Amino acid sequence: MASAVAELDDESMGLAVEAEAWIDAVLGEKVPGDDFAAKFDDGYYLCKLMNKLQDGICKGRVKKTRAKFQRAEQVQKFLKAARKLGVVEFELFATTDLVEHKNLRQVIHTLHSLGRTAQDKCPDLEHKL
Q1: Its pTM surpasses 0.90
Q2: Nearest to 39 by CA among 17, 56, 61, 11
Q3: How does DSSP classify residue 118?
Q4: What are 37-73's pLDDT values in tens digits?
Q5: What is d(CA 53, CA 113) in angstroms, rounded to the nearest whole number?
Q6: 93-107: burial string, b at 16+ Cβ within 10 Å, e else
Q7: What is the torsion angle, in degrees rounded to the nearest 10, for the CA atoms of residue 6, residue 30, residue 118 and residue 97?
């Protein structure tokens, strides 16, 4: 699979870097890897992020996986948790946008929307996006 990151323009790449830095700061650890989509396409770190923002919001067991079905399921858990936190529907990416690396601009947009929402909904959040 060709890197979908190579298809991002400079502005989108800058926004991706900002989103990654925010996620790393909130998690208190650097998400490993160099490819933006591959870092997050299994939903593991996204669910971990959601549970840092609001304990237990991303329900069920989440693990690192390469199985496509499980990756999609975990990304759906992230999206459900983002909705519950207050990210509006039209700002959410579709599961396939991330799992299949189809529309990373929308993924980046969703992460920035989550960052704005988290500022309002999580008053103890130290890290802002």
Answers
A1: yes
A2: 17
A3: H
A4: 999 999 999 999 999 999 999 988 899 988 999 999 9
A5: 14
A6: bebebbbbbebbbeb
A7: 30
Burial degree of 69 (CB within 10 A; 0-12, 13-18, 19+): exposed
pLDDT at 2: 46
Q: Quick one: how many helices (H) and strands (E) in the chain? A: 6, 0
Residue 98: which of 55, 47, 51 has the closest Cα?
A: 47
Coil/strand/helix, residue 69: helix
- Check if the beta carbon of residue 17 is closer than 8 Å to that of residue 11: no
Instruction: Decide if pLDDT at 5 tops 80.
Output: no
Return the axis-axis angle of helices 68-85 and 44-53, rounded to nearest 10°.
20
Residues in Cβ contact with 59 at an 8 Å cutoff, skipping those fewer than 6 apart: 77, 80, 81
Question: Radius of gyration over alpha carbons of the chain, in Å?
Answer: 13
How far apart CA 105 and CA 36 sit, in angstroms, is: 11
Give helix 104-121 / helix 68-85 axis angle, nearest 10°: 40
Q: Hunting for tokens 């529907």 — which residue is that?
A: 89
